[in-house]
Amino acid sequence: MIVYLMRHAEAVEAGEAACDEWRYLTEQGRTSAERTARQISAHGRKPRLIMTSPLVRAVQTAQIAAAYACRRNRVVVSSLLLPNSDIDELITYLKSCGEAKRVMVVGHEPHLGSLAATLLACRNPLPLKKASCLALYLSPKDDTPATFLWYALPGKKVITSLKKAFPAP
Question: 3-state DSSP call for residue 7?
Fold first, then answer.
């Protein structure tokens, strides 16, 4: 199955206007999320299911992705994508979604970077930039590491090399 890991787009800062849970996308964030979603749609097969963190900025990013890049516009909110949730539980759940064939998860850093590293069996987290999307092939039947497919940044050429996408520090 193909797993798309998409980080939420730029959101307003937490403060008097909005606590962290209620932070919403800026206009630039909405534009970036749309650009990435269009790249996903143009680059390959569309996700059939989108899972998102319940935080507002992630839900809004997921809705934009669903409008432009999802085959059936199906979005499911899951606490498994909250920051600091258990990555092993999330992986178990993702593998149970194998019949969907293509699943997108929308969440937060550093959680998504840790998830990517775990799936790819990398030592260090792979930090995803805001509104970016990482595509991996994950076998739902065994515990072999995932295979890197590509990494998309808003408005930039899709990167097809893991080393170019995440250069070693």
Answer: strand
Q: What are phi and psi of 142, to 5 degrees?
A: -135, 180
CA distance 6 to 37: 9
Q: Please check the confidence at residue 77 and state whether its pLDDT lies above 70.
A: yes
CB 109 within 8 A of CB 10: no
Alpha-carbon distances of 20 from 12, 15, 120, rounded to whole Å: 9, 8, 30
**For the chain, what percentages of helix, strand and coil (3-state, to nearest 5) are there?**
40, 20, 45
- pTM tops 0.90: yes
Side-chain-side CA neighbours of residue 160 (13 Å)? 2
The residue range of the domain holding 94 is 2-165
CATH code for position 48:
3.40.50.1240
Question: pLDDT tens digits for 38-65?
Answer: 999 887 778 989 999 999 999 999 999 9
Distance CA 80, CA 88 (A): 10
Total count of domains within the chain: 1
Question: Which tokens belong to 108?
Answer: 């937060």
Buried b (16+ CB within 10 A) or exposed e, 76-113: ebbebbbeebebeebbeebbebeebebbbbbbbbebbb
Phi, psi dihedral angles at 40 (to 5 degrees): -60, -45
